[in-house]
């Protein structure tokens, strides 16, 4: 029974990832706020990692990161590596140091959004030497960080529902 529920839970996560990938990539479906759209797959990976153990968190972080890479730059690399590391680290921290609750998940998610999106800006804009990058960061990336973080809240409750419905009650 445990394996069956685990497979169903992972299948539900997979469907969620595909739906949010499609929603994220559909033009004009999610409105831009100050030039930034949320990265929904970051929200998904972080909230799945809050509920799952280390290995599933690692693989869901890898899957969401790879899909982010395909959606943003058509190459596998940056998001896959960073999201894999952050999701694994989150699962380790939540299993040994921090208590799994809403507030801690939001705190970790905010720090992760700043790290993922901020480092993306550093690697792909600052290191390439674009001009007026501070204006671009303020006009597009701050709103993207905040918008992504706000979207973590409903995705957290969706994944909490999936996790609680597809596990053996003790």
N-to-C span: 13 Å
CATH architecture: Orthogonal Bundle
Helix content: over 70%
Major beta sheet summary: none
Rg over C-alpha atoms, rounded to the nearest angstrom = 16 Å
Q: Find the count of extended strands (DSSP E, 2+ residues).
A: 0
Per DSSP, what share of the residues sits in E-state strands of 2 or more residues? under 5%
**Unreliable sequence segments:** none
Tell me the series of helices and strands, N- to C-terminal: HHHHHH
Describe this protein's structure.
- This protein is mostly helical and 170 residues long.
- The protein has one domain (2-165): Arp2/3 complex 21 kDa subunit ARPC3.
- The chain is built from six helices and no strands.
- The chain has helices at 2-25, 40-51, 54-72, 78-96, 102-126, 133-165.
- The chain is globular.
- 35% of the residues are buried.
Quick recap of the structure?
By secondary structure, the protein is mainly α. 78% of the residues lie in helices and 0% in strands.
Please outline the helices and strands.
Blueprint: H1 2-25, H2 40-51, H3 54-72, H4 78-96, H5 102-126, H6 133-165
């Amino acid at each position: 029974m445990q394996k069956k529920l685990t497979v169903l839970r992972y299948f539900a996560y997979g469907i969620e990832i595909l739906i949010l990938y499609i929603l994220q990539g559909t033009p004009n479906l999610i409105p831009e706020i100050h030039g930034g759209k949320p990265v929904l797959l970051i929200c998904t990976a972080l909230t799945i990692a809050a509920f799952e153990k280390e290995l599933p968190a690692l693989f869901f972080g890898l899957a969401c990161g790879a899909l982010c890479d395909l959606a943003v730059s058509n190459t596998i690399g940056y998001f896959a590596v960073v999201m894999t590391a952050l999701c694994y680290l989150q699962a380790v921290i939540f299993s040994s140091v921090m208590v799994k609750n809403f507030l801690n998940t939001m705190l970790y998610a905010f720090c992760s959004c700043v790290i993922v999106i901020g480092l993306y800006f550093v690697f792909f804009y600052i290191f390439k030497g674009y001009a007026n990058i501070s204006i671009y960061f303020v006009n597009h990336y701050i709103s993207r960080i905040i918008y992504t973080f706000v979207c973590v809240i409903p995705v957290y409750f969706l994944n909490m529902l999936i996790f609680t419905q597809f596990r053996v009650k003790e």
